[in-house]
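User: quick one, sequence for these tokens?
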């Protein structure tokens, strides 16, 4: 076989292999229908909005699935109903959280809250969830003697760890940077948070974290003055 014939033969085999791959990867209308039947209403609506960019097979498949599910108007109606339900859940949730933050009991709220859209069971579940969140938030913000003691302990630990980190920065790098400053702040806060089991919403945690940050730099720079630059 001549060299040119070999090239042509190889090229034809390559084209045939590519065609086989493309045929295997092509979706039939039935494949697309099966795919769309598993789509949520939101996903079907997204496809509908951009259907001009799809193939004719995809358009036929979407049309078939929409008709099977009651048509486009039915799809829109279901989506609107979902929005109404979500808004109602959000309204009840926000009210429960706000009242829960003011110390209102969940049982009292359940006895006074009703909805023409949701079942009472759904209303009660929303109230319980959001009142629990509000209770946790109140507890997180509460500054007790135990919180103060743990904040002081956390401040001491964070200062020791932070001081070591700062001293290493100055001793081996000769300076600090914005990234290192942010990192130190996060380390101090993380240590205090771990010790107190409370977040930055708590005043004691916030003040202890800030104090630890300042003390860390004082300790680190003092160690640097003693040891000197070794970088």
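Assistant:
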């Amino acid at each position: 076989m001549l060299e040119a014939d070999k090239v042509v033969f190889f090229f034809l085999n390559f084209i045939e292999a590519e065609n086989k791959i493309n045929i295997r990867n092509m979706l039939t209308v039935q494949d697309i229908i099966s795919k769309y039947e598993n789509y949520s209403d939101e996903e079907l609506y997204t496809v509908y909005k951009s259907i001009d960019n799809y193939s004719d097979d995809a358009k036929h498949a979407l049309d078939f699935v929409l008709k099977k599910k009651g048509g486009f108007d039915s799809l829109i109606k279901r989506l609107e109903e979902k929005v109404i339900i979500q808004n109602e859940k959000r309204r009840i949730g926000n009210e429960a959280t706000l009242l829960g933050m003011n110390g209102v009991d969940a049982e009292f709220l359940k006895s006074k809250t009703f909805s023409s859209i949701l079942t009472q069971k759904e209303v009660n579940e929303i109230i319980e969830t959001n009142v629990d969140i509000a209770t946790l938030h109140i507890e997180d913000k509460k500054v007790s003697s135990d919180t103060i003691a743990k904040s002081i302990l956390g401040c001491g630990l964070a200062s020791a760890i932070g001081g070591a980190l700062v001293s290493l920065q100055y001793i081996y790098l000769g300076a600090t940077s914005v990234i290192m400053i942010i990192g130190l702040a996060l380390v101090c806060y993380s240590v205090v948070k771990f010790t107190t089991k409370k977040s930055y919403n708590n005043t004691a945690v916030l003040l202890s974290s800030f104090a630890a940050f300042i003390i860390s730099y004082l300790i680190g720079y003092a160690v640097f003055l003693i040891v000197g630059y070794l970088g």
